[in-house]
Amino acid sequence: MLDLRQVVDQLDEVRAGLARRSPAAAAQLGPIAPLAAERRRLIAESEKMQSERNVASKEMARADKHSPEFAARRDELKQLSATVKDLEARTTACESELQELLARIPNLPAESVPNGTGEADNVVVKVWGSAPDQPFPVKAHYDIGTDLGVLDFERATKLSGPRFTVLWGDGARLERALIHFMLELHTREHGYTEVLPPFLVKGETLFGTGQLPKFEEDLFKTRKSDPERSYDLYLSPTAEVPLTNLHADEILEGEVLPLAYTAYTPCFRSEAGSYGQDVRGMIRQHQFDKVELVRVCEPERSDEELELLTRHAETVLERLGLHYRRVALCAADLGFSAARTYDLEVWLPSQNKFREISSCSNCGDFQARRAKIRYRPQKGDKPRLLHTLNGSALAVGRTLIAILEQGQRADGSVVIPEVLRAFMGSDTLRPTPRR
Question: Distance between CA 89 and CA 155 in Å, rounded?
């Protein structure tokens, strides 16, 4: 969430920053300034009335209880108290409206973020590896997986409807191998603490990272069945949500920073608004596995932390031998909570293009302000907001897709990346009879 004081005091600068995202984002500021002015007026009026109430109270205390002056002051005090109460209620309502408006306004792009109007204006920062030499008609992952007998979309549809997948045998084992490999890499080599968070989260937790209130249609909401539970629970769309909110409403000591967490979780997304996109295969699923990275740090080092986190995600792709590129997103393509983002895009031979497999973002203090995550630089210092960062390292299903497509051979088999072979007990995926 943006800082209300910054929005009001630097309205033109904030509007210009949001306009880099889109005219619609900048237009959301429209009601903010007059509401903020009304809030200031109500606060000033309330303080004035409180002062007059205090004077009336003191004068009533000095007056004879049986005198007309006492009765007049008493009536005046009652009226002033009622006026103050009304002003306080109006101020609270005004502040609530301001917070609701701010909660739907996206983060400001960092100055270093390139301008642009969409995906076509993103900037390629680096390319690693090269497309595999495949002198035969390449297949899409859904055909490869079906032919191998490891992906089953028909039975998944029978069980749960479209945009789900059943993984059989070596397919399930490969998914598990990837999760194991990613977690071992990030914990043993990159120094992350592994966390296994709940997969169901509260609405306030989703608010903290920016999924609510604006993106509720993208979430799966459960039905309340416990009469003792007054709040709703949602299926988590990404481990970024619980990991970032681990320290919500906390004040951390500066000496413990930076914090680095990793978690494997299934992720659940309704994919609202994506109908007709990637309808075949595993690119866009309602349920998918992901290993997430989250870092929490002091504001002055968050750009450095973004580079580090992104390198950790890239290392996964490089160890797997997968051709990819790093892209700096332009302002118009940033996610809601992000101030800066690098996308990692893996090469898919069947589409003859790169597709996103990870987004690594620096959210600045945007999420920390929403979730109230603060720290003291030194003992006794005034608490400050932290900066939060997150990135997929990696989306497991899309990694499996890339392995199937980049590793496919003319005979229908698929080469398993060397780092996974000990876990898989083989160097090749070969067709197995369909059940």
Answer: 57
pTM: 0.91
Of 15, 73, 269, 295, the catalytic one is: 269
CATH (residue range 119-429): 3.30.930.10
398 is catalytic: yes
Q: Is 359 a catalytic residue?
A: yes
Strand partners, 267: 288
pLDDT confidence of residue 276:
67
356 is catalytic: yes
Which of 46, 236, 302, 359 is labelled catalytic? Answer: 359
Report the SS3 class of residue 197. Answer: coil
* Active site annotation includes 59: no
Cα separation, 348 vs 346, in Å, equals 6
Residue of 90, 176, 356, 413 with catalytic role: 356
Establish whether 284 is a catalytic residue. Answer: yes
For residue 392, which of 302, 281, 294, 266 has the smallest C-alpha distance?
294
10-44 residue pLDDT tens: 999 999 999 999 999 999 999 998 999 999 999 99
CB atoms within 10 A of CB 109: 23
- Is 296:259 a contact under the CB 8 Å cutoff? yes
**Distance of alpha carbon 131 from the chain centroid:** 31
Give the model's pLDDT for residue 338: 98
Domain positions in the chain: 4-102, 119-429
